[in-house]
């Protein structure tokens, strides 16, 4: 047994076992014992891991805390779990035991079902708490081994958050019925306690947690009984926490205040922005958007990674011949270049990366956006303001008096904007914009539907790139699965980590121009473009599959 008389893990016995299995050297064991003299309170496994010893079983790797915990789990014949906060129902498991009970025994409940509760511990021989917990919950206790650091950090987060949520809930007025909520929507006579210390802590936790989990969007959604916090990670939404409705509304008020929005106005959608500084010094920009619902305002925050400010076309997945052709189109002095795809397909990222490629000191690059998603120092950016009758078309006309070389229009939404883009291209400017179409060729039909004459499309359109985002296979756990059922830490067992683009580039050659007619045959145009070398989205997806970057199911999911 690796424990002492009190059933706590014993450092000397752990070191002896590791020596017997040749996982450490005698010199390393002496170092650990010396370190223990000044770090007596440290968990034995954390103490050994702190020496950063090489792992003989994994050449070139360190004997990390993770590997030590896996080794311990195998020795005591208990499952090992790497705790993934996204897989833990924080609100549910936080109610299973008190913070004092968890802290006293160094344990944490991480899952519960109809018959059992899963409890993580870094002291596998300690059992005096099991009977009490099983009796109070009326469920069987399933023990697992986890990292003491993870248990400690998640417990601090979980119980600290639960305390703040409870405190904030007690500060909120009694819940309203559905009809009363509808009547009071936007009344503004009972402002939520946006500056309450508990609410401040909950909002700070939410923002930091979303950043740590690589979320692209935060959804804060009020419902009849409770509000839901969801994070979009690699394109998919994950439910994280269920807050009392009053707390959810107070969180919305806090975020509106931070985003310099009208906190009292709840009847109309609003947009705002805020910044959050990371521990490393970088700043993350967040774009806020509110939407009135019967149970309060739904809030969505879009996070912009500071690393995206330096994102290049290559980072997005453009490469080889496709990259050369796109850069060739960007080098044109005039014409319209369009990027198409559904919402969330990466169109804006492609536009910004393209503008960064073009924004040299010799160029005057201007953009009109709704809203400005990322602040770019090399671009003169203009915000659409409907309240001041400043739309996309008005903004383009104003920009034409600013001696621009390149104009970016956030989106061509209507006939006026389409005509303004055409006029800008006809007067010798390169115009970049986006459209919502399923493929590149469909952009021509969309412009025709907006009332742009076919001969003007022929004269101005020089290229269209359709795109999608697919999740990439996790490089750590694919194609093999983790041994002993262990979940990959990087992808959380999903098999995917990060995203890359699929692209379809239509170059408007002389042959393509001849086929742009009032009744253009899209199928024939698509076939002709392929004969000229256009590779469609599915073929791009096939290439990504053959190179082991993604899978068939993922390509079919985004390409239909």
Automatic annotation (TrEMBL):
It comes from the Bacteria. Pfam families: MshEN, T2SSE. InterPro entries: AAA+_ATPase, P-loop_NTPase, T2SS/T4SS_dom, T2SS_E_N_sf, T2SS_GspE_N. Residues 400-414 form the Bacterial type II secretion system protein E domain. Keywords: ATP-binding, Nucleotide-binding. The keyword Acyltransferase does not apply. GO terms for cellular component: plasma membrane. GO terms for molecular function: ATP binding; ATP hydrolysis activity. Belongs to the GSP E family. PANTHER family: SECRETION PATHWAY ATPASE-RELATED (PTHR30258:SF13), TYPE II SECRETION SYSTEM PROTEIN GSPE-RELATED (PTHR30258). This is Type II/IV secretion system protein.
